[in-house]
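User: Hey, my collaborator sent me this sequence without any context and asked if I could get a structure. I don't really work with proteins. Can you help?
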Amino acid sequence: MKKTLKYLIITTLTFVNANLFAQNVHFVQNGVIEFEKRSNMYAIIKKKINKENESWYGPAFDQYKKNFPQFKVSKSSLSFTKNKSLYKWTSPEETMSNNWVTRDLFADLKNTIATDFNTQTSTSQKRVYEETYLVKDSLRKINWKITDETREIAGYECRRANAVIMDSIYVVAYYTNQIAVSGGPESFTGLPGMILGLAVPHENMTWFATKVTEVTVPEKDLTAPVKGKPTTNAALGKIVAGALKDWGSEALSASKVFNF
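Assistant: No problem. I've predicted the 3D structure and written it out in structure-token form, which is a compact way to encode the shape of the chain:
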């Protein structure tokens, strides 16, 4: 009897404490997140060297390593409310050589993306070589696999989730349910909280939040971009594939970059 009573007391106290904790937890629903994108240029360039180009690409790479750091860094921000978000770039990447050695479609990617969580749609402004496109489409459906791994990012405890998009691009995301918005950098959404960390390991790139500011976001700061040729993701894929039809495997890679 005493053991039963003791068990009931412990259970009751645990339940009460859990409720008190839940009542005191503060869930962020609007603010601005600052992100830092880091591209490992040493790894990216090294993968481009093969037997056909190593005689001239190799020396150029060696010279690059003598003059420039390993990582290309660029900054972006995500303004959000519980209904909308706007992802945009806030500063150019760190100063590097502008020659052909540094050029990489993934590393140089700079999309502006407005997301409407109510309608589950997005409007993305994408620069594709010399043209600017305005891509309006539904949000990408991602089959996330949530794991037990956690890490702290910008002061928030985040849980890891893995996914594969476009059949071959492996993605790792870290989200926090303390920010009660299912958003994230670039075009990544669909987790039970805000994505504060994103990695594309095989492409040698990461996006991690450096600061989260809870603040009221004016509607004008969530305005979707309007400049560009209207299209959809599927149509843009066909445009890129047609323009690069003679590029072989490079065409497939470029098509995935512009639909990232």
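In plain terms: Residues 1-23, 93-97 have pLDDT under 50 and may be disordered. You can pass these tokens on to your collaborator as they are.
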